[in-house]
Design a protein that fits this description.
binds beta-D-glucopyranose
């Protein structure tokens, strides 16, 4: 593996510059930034932007629980159900793609505000829906919001964070995603027996949407984006708060950003496809695609189904077990939060992928042995649930947060929005492919075959990480 130089000139070096993939950086080797203290201000604005992550998690997580209720109420056909799920993911693809250039042009903060409005409208439409087409419109609006938020929240947090804590603060966003998914599972389970409970579970996301909107009205613009627009005084005021009033650190950061910007003042949109960008873009696209082809969302969207298929319990037992999976996912993200800036991205990816591969192998084995009547339904169910929990714990340790952290920091500032938009689009497109092929793949190559296939993808990704 090549070692990346640790220079603060991340806009010029681009790839993994001020946080190389091993996590060490110049700041930690005794410079001023080595003593940087984490301020409440940084944590506060990261938490506000992370409400975008919470909505991402909630809105993607709530579907599996709401779907059976919608199917009953609107007598949905299988195709209508699939369209309901896929339309939202397709809208995420579009939202992420548009969000990138939009955030470069109008700023990170207004882009998050637009996402918040889309979330609120989507939630309102879903709550009052009395026809299938209204449900579709509501989900598509939400999808646009999720797509935008998924690319812009990590970028905003990374750009407004002190270098030393960037990974950890971006991981707050991932904790919010996983927390949102966990809350969504609980809410869906709680409302599953309530008359028209889906209206509440789908509509509830309107609350964080309003919190995100109001919070972002009070939050500052990204200082990096401001400097890129020549608004250095505004950026200085914000950076002073970010660095707890330390003028030297704020000035040093301004100089670093200015230095880097001066090297490519006239960067054009099309430069995103030039040779210099090829490597970071390829890494960003691949790591985001790998994240999805590890099969994570088959676990997140279908965990209750998987648990049932493994012969474990009835509907409600399966739903409650699936909340356990989501809980483990959120919990493990917290561990990553503490490790990411210490251990480094590459080691975490390595550890995470090894665990995921093992979990997938075990999950496949549980199904294989059951399909060949070599173990009882119960034994297979217990093995499958343990493997699923193990798998998600390891996913959240690295493959969940690291791709988002990496893609929010490896691109030059001027192209960061558009480039992150592209890598996020790769994430959603891969998500769409995996979700749409999961069930048919199962009938084609058996349940065991599907998980072993995802396991093979993880091994390829492990090799990719070794050579990264
Ligand atoms: C992924 C999502 C996934 C979630 C699981 C995120 O990092 O991007 O697709 O649903 O992790 O917690």
């Amino acid at each position: 593996m090549s070692e990346y130089n640790t220079t603060n000139d991340d806009e010029e070096k681009g790839l993994l510059a001020d946080h190389n993939i091993d996590g060490s950086n110049e700041c930690e080797r005794g410079s001023l930034l080595g003593q940087t203290k984490l301020t409440l201000y940084s944590v506060g604005i990261s938490c506000i932007a992370a409400v975008g992550g919470l909505l991402f998690g909630y809105d993607t997580g709530v579907v599996s629980g709401a779907l059976p209720l919608l199917e009953e109420e609107f007598s949905l056909s299988e195709i209508e159900e699939e369209a309901f799920v896929s339309a939202a993911i397709a809208a995420c693809v579009v939202g992420a793609l548009i969000g990138g250039p939009l955030s470069d042009r109008i700023g990170r903060r207004p882009t998050i505000l637009i996402a918040a409005v889309l979330f609120a409208i989507g939630a309102a439409v879903l709550t009052v829906s009395n026809a299938y087409w209204m449900l579709l419109i509501g989900r598509i609006m939400l999808g646009f919001g999720v797509g935008k938020a998924s690319m812009i929240s990590p970028v905003y947090i990374a750009e407004a964070s002190p270098q030393r804590f960037r990974g950890a603060l971006v991981t707050i966003n991932n904790f919010a995603i996983t927390g949102g998914q966990f809350v969504a599972y609980i809410v869906a389970a709680l409302f599953s027996k309530v008359n028209e409970g889906w209206r509440y579970s789908l509509g509830l996301s309107g609350v964080p949407a309003v919190i995100l909107f109001v919070g972002m009205l009070m939050a500052p613009e990204s200082p990096r984006w401001l400097i890129g627009r020549g608004r250095t005084d505004e950026a200085r005021r914000i950076l002073l708060k970010v660095y707890g009033g330390c003028k030297e650190e704020a000035e040093r950061e301004i100089n670093d950003i200015n230095d880097a910007l001066s090297k490519h003042v006239d960067v054009k949109f099309r430069e995103v496809f030039t040779r210099r960008m090829r490597r970071p873009l390829a890494i960003g696209i691949l790591i985001q695609a790998f994240q999805q082809f590890c099969g994570i969302n088959t676990a997140m969207y279908y965990s209750a189904t998987i648990i049932k298929m493994a012969g474990f319990g009835d509907n409600s037992t399966a739903i409650w077990f699936s909340t356990l999976v989501a809980f483990g996912n959120a919990l493990s993200t917290i561990i990553c939060l503490f490790l990411i800036d210490r251990v480094g991205r590459r080691k975490l990816l390595f550890l995470s992928l090894s665990g995921i591969t093992f979990g997938l192998a075990a999950l496949g084995l549980a199904f294989y042995l059951n399909e060949h009547s070599m173990i009882s339904d119960k034994a297979s169910g217990i093995t499958a649930v343990c493997a699923l929990v193990f798998y998600t714990l390891f996913f959240a340790l690295g493959m969940g947060p690291v791709p988002w952290a990496l893609t929010s920091e490896i691109f030059p500032l001027k192209l960061r929005g558009i480039a992150t938009g592209i890598t996020t689009t790769a994430n959603w497109l891969s998500n769409l492919i995996v979700s749409m092929t999961f069930l048919s793949l199962m009938s084609l190559i058996t349940k065991a075959g599907v998980y072993w296939l995802y396991g093979c993808v993880c091994i390829v990704c492990l090799i990719f990480v070794i050579f990264l």
